[in-house]
UniProtKB/TrEMBL annotation:
It comes from the Bacteria. This is Hypersensitive reaction and pathogenicity protein. The gene is hrp. SUPFAM superfamilies: P-loop containing nucleoside triphosphate hydrolases. It comes from Xanthomonas perforans.
Length: 81
């Protein structure tokens, strides 16, 4: 139905109930990307979960983006350490 929502909370549920009004942000969920994130651990919202402080990415990518075509990307010449 248009008036129902299935929610998956990623944080505290303080002061929330079945009657709490839900308002969408109007933008899709995105996570930071870039070399600074190699080896980091993020939670479901792209927030650091490894105790190493804030993440500083080079940009943001939507999590629902189309996967890149593996046959069109550059060859991997050096594996990650």
């Amino acid at each position: 139905s248009r008036h129902l929502a299935l929610l998956a909370p990623f944080g505290e549920l303080v002061d929330l109930s079945r009657e709490t009004r839900v308002i969408g942000s109007g933008r899709p969920l995105a996570v930071p990307v870039g070399e600074a994130l190699l080896g980091r651990v993020l939670d479901g919202l792209g927030e650091p979960a490894d105790g190493q402080g804030p993440v500083a990415g080079d940009g943001w990518v939507q999590i629902q983006a189309q996967a890149p075509d593996p046959m069109r990307r550059r060859l991997i010449e050096q594996p990650l350490p």
